Amino acid sequence: MIPPPPSFSSAPNVKELLQSDTAVETSKSRKEYDKSSTLSKRHRDSSLNSSKERTRGKRERRSRSPHGHEFTDIDRTSHRESSRRKEKYRCDSREQDRDRDRDRDRDRDRDRNRYRDRHRDKDRDRDGSIRYSQSKHSSHRSRHSRSPSFDRENTRDSGRTLSHITRLDSGLTFFMDKSGDPDNITYGENNASHVPRYQRNGFGTVIGYEPGNTITLESKHEKVLTIQSSKDGRPRKNKKSAITRYTDSDYAWRETDKTIKRMRIKPETQDTAGFMTGDNFLSFDTDNKTKDHDEEIEDEIVSSGVDYRDIRGKAPERVSQEEEARDGGESFDEYTRRRTIELNRTLGDNPHDVKTWLEFIDFQDEVASGLNIGTEKTIRSKANKGSINEVKISIFEKALENNPDNEDLIVAYLKCGGEIWDTLTLLREWDGILKRNPESIRLWADYINLRQTNFSSFTFTECFKVFEDCILTLNKVSQRLQARRKTEENEQARETIESVLIYVFLRCCLFMKQSGYQEKAYGSMQALVEFNLFQPQIFNIQKDVSFQKILEEFSNFWDSEVPRFGEKNATGWNEYHRARYNEEDIKPETTDINNEIQEEKELETLQDWIEAEKALEYHHRLPQRMSSAKPEQVDEDPYLVVLSEDVRTLLFNITTHGARSGLIYSIFVFLGLPYTPPGVGTNTHFCTDAFTHNEMKLNEFWPEKEQKQLLIHYISGVPMEPEQMLTKSDPFGLPVSYPIGISELFARLKHWFGCVGCHSLECDMDVEFTRNVFEQLISLEHDDHLMLCYLSFESSCGYKGGRKLAKSILKDQRTNLLLWNAYAQMEMSHDKPQEARKVYHTILSTYKSFSSSSQTDASFVYQMFAQLEIENDRYNEALNILVAMATDQEYQENGPTPSSTQILKAREHFSQKTAQLSVLSDDPQSAKSALHYNVCYALFQYLTLGIDAACAIYDRVISYIQEHKAERGFINEAVWMVYAELLYRHATRGYGGHKPVMLREAMQKALSLFPNNTVFIGLFIWNESRTRIHNRVRNFFGQALDKDPNIILWLSAIHRELHNHSPYDINLVRSFFDRAIENTRTRSSIILWRLYIYHETWQGNHERALGLFYRAVRECPWSKELHLTGLNLLQKHASEKDLNEAVSLMMEKEIRIRKPIEDELLV
């Protein structure tokens, strides 16, 4: 049951109106009043009805839905007037007098005015609930239901009398109602604001209530409303379509009204009953606290049994406070006040709760945005951004008073301040915070990013000084930990601080290289490697030697100008120190280590100058010596020579193995080579940092030049849209972002994901430098992974060089099965499978004579040999290899197919061996052996039972890793890599049939754990493109970029759209580029800006390319490459003034210019 709508029972009827009129207006003649009283009932009803319509039309009816939604219902006057014009009233024959036609108009106007004046006076004196009742009662009458006549209304209210009606001198009228208003009992109070409100949607429906239900007046009582289902009642006619929420103008304002209450729908919890949980019994225990609570609620219900808070008029079942708020709804203003009070109370009780402080600060953005949507939200948020940030700054200051050393608060505070402060204020705040927190690694990293990317304050000198200060400060922390390593175990802390120092140093070297100071960048890298990897042993033995003493000794070595790390004939600092201690002759380097340009062309255009500038960079990588450099060259360009004073501020000591390995592989990052350290997965910062991935080479990033295609094709005379053809038939070409193993180092072109090193370098100088680096590092570090990378690099430079290097290495390490395996794979990478088989036959016939420690990689040899035969469609030979491994027999090429007994024995051997070994073993060698055995077992199952059996092996290993909570580690990623390779080989070779769903599901699982692995991304894209289904790929990129937008994901998404079909969607590619350069993590990526500018130039949109150039320089002011790209564009599509401004900007930011620009070139 629903409470009745407020009726006009408290308003005077026609008879009472006449009596009241006599009492108030005594000056009226009795004759006129009697004449009006003789009007027909029909005339009087029509007059009163018209006045009610105007009264209701001027008022607004507020209502509440049954579920607690709060809305405002605006009367649709036109609809009601149309309904009421159709209503017919019964006429009494006695009222058809002859004076009707003569007096009708005059009497009706007089009565209407009299009723309106008296009704307005009452509304001013009485409570607003009467006004509300009038409109509410009228609104409940539908044109589809018969309205009660005034005869029935007068009969119902016949006992109701008004007395003591008096008009004051002020004009106000008051009266005493002895009968009272029954609505006060129904609704609990006589205040209109406490009457339950709901929104009518026409034809008895209520907005927010279940569809198909209507409100009807109960025929028996006529004081309550009932909800009638369309199934039980009569079918409604003239159905009216519901108001469209987002297109109707009458509804649009509701979306931004903060006073309207809204329901927050929450997912319901699952039933925890016994039948749902699987329990074998049902519990009937009740909570005493709940019982007491229910009893208190029952006492609060009014004696009438009606709860005025419920539109149905019934006492609802009491629920928790949270559910009550959810069911009753909550306006945005109420939500804001409640949330603010909660947060203030929490922070008052615990001011050291940093999480709540940050939540309170983020809540200010929610309050500012409010309920604004669409364009209006964007405009308002931009307009109020400054004022909101001021409020947030004040909250930050209070938070920092209680938590002055919390890095999360400090970083968020400075980020917020950076949006409203000027550059000087921002830098002043940063300086003050770094003085109070000088050893914070996170603050220094963010400060470096700020100074390197802040266009207003950037100059090369100032930014380089920031790098120096950071390294000096962190080095003090490192020295303090190193001094205490004898008395305490702090290896983990030392490795952490030393790894951060290496990262900052790498960033500094890349910054110098990208700004044009390549001699200083290469010299700094040489200096740090010499200082740590080739340091004399005497300094390690004598622990009391100070750091400054070591720096002085190193300065002597550097200034002696002997060959340094990476240069030909370099022997290292330790050899120099030994020769000097023994007073041996030391000869400095006297020849120019850089390749001289054969001849200098005369510069006639700006393009000639740009080409000459790039040529100088390619031929002058390493710092020159004072003894060999020409004096006039040094005078013109003093940066050609790097002295010890230029590098000693960047030096620091390394004492841990992890940091030492990080320094070695940072050399390859500096050179742009894709070699990653062993054991480092793609979920680390090493693989996603935007500042260290600007040297990547994307050889297959762009599609082939598109041919013009017709907009319409005709097939059998029918015009159709031309088919969009795929531009790539393989999954390769994405950036290298995956663990590097033998399969990747020696992958054949277009057969698997490779890691080609030689083509990643820009010039011959880098190739020679890299070769020297490998040779000198291998002489110092006997690292198998490093030797594999060296062999891969030489193999990419040429087959003869790689084969020669492999034989020279194996000559010294004949028992190294890993190197033998790499040698065979190198032969296969150059399409020489027969040579590869010879290598494998040699090693399999001799490895059993090796020591037991040298035989640990035998399973890996069998695995790679079997994969080689599978790749060449020799499945029987692959099975023979695996059976020979399991049965410990000698492999015979072209032997018979293994018998069923041999297969059973081999399966039993693999099953027992894989059960004994664990891929998560603490011993790295045991973990690798377990992985190789599981791969061999999977290959065996694949050749004997099919792909499903092989997948079961990998699924079992992955489940084991997941049970031990290591599913995001490097081992699990390595398992997924070999799993993906098997599925790809199966899909391309078709051995036993291929199901696309199998590869799709596997890659989706792998990408959920390793979204930055481009092997998984490439295979997922390739598989979906074959089925012409693109939504899954787009959904993946959408979710991954929302969760963790990094340079690898952006480049992969753009690459996919470029090669999705031909011609590609230019607007979609631009959308990805725009999103990437606007993201805070990648907007300072040089490679993204360079690719975007090239794309627009390729499309012939030079104006857009120029706009991107100006934006790129603002985000990456240190990049000389972007400056030169802009000059190349400006010379063709800009004025002389723009060219001069661009050159002036390079000089202002202190970008290195090797060859002066003549003014004539800028004309």
What does the overall shape look like?
globular
Query: What quaternary form is this?
Result: single chain
Q: How far from one another are the termini?
A: 89 Å
Number of helices: 50
**Which class do the helix and strand fractions yield?**
mainly alpha
Give the total of beta strands.
10
How can the largest sheet be summarized? 2 strands, antiparallel
Overall pLDDT score = 77
- As residue ranges, the low-confidence spans are 1-95, 121-162, 218-222, 231-248, 269-280, 285-326, 373-379
Percent of sequence in beta strands: under 5%
What is the spatial order of strands in the main beta sheet? 1-2
Annotate the secondary structure layout:
Blueprint: H1 14-24, H2 30-37, H3 41-57, E1 61-64, E2 70-73, H4 77-86, H5 100-125, H6 129-139, H7 150-156, E3 162-167, E4 173-177, H8 183-187, E5 213-217, E6 225-229, H9 249-252, E7 261-262, H10 274-277, H11 288-300, H12 321-328, E8 330-331, H13 332-349, H14 354-369, H15 374-383, H16 385-402, H17 407-417, H18 423-436, H19 441-453, H20 460-483, H21 491-514, H22 518-533, H23 537-541, H24 547-559, H25 573-581, H26 606-619, H27 631-636, H28 644-647, H29 657-671, E9 713-715, E10 718-720, H30 742-745, H31 764-780, H32 784-797, H33 799-812, H34 817-829, H35 833-846, H36 858-871, H37 875-887, H38 900-916, H39 924-944, H40 947-963, H41 970-989, H42 996-1009, H43 1014-1026, H44 1031-1043, H45 1047-1058, H46 1066-1078, H47 1086-1098, H48 1102-1115, H49 1120-1133, H50 1136-1148
Helix pairs in contact: 3-5, 13-14, 14-16, 16-17, 19-20, 20-21, 21-22, 21-29, 22-29, 31-32, 32-33, 32-34, 33-34, 34-35, 34-36, 35-36, 36-37, 36-39, 37-38, 37-39, 38-39, 39-40, 40-41, 41-42, 42-43, 45-46, 47-48, 48-49, 49-50
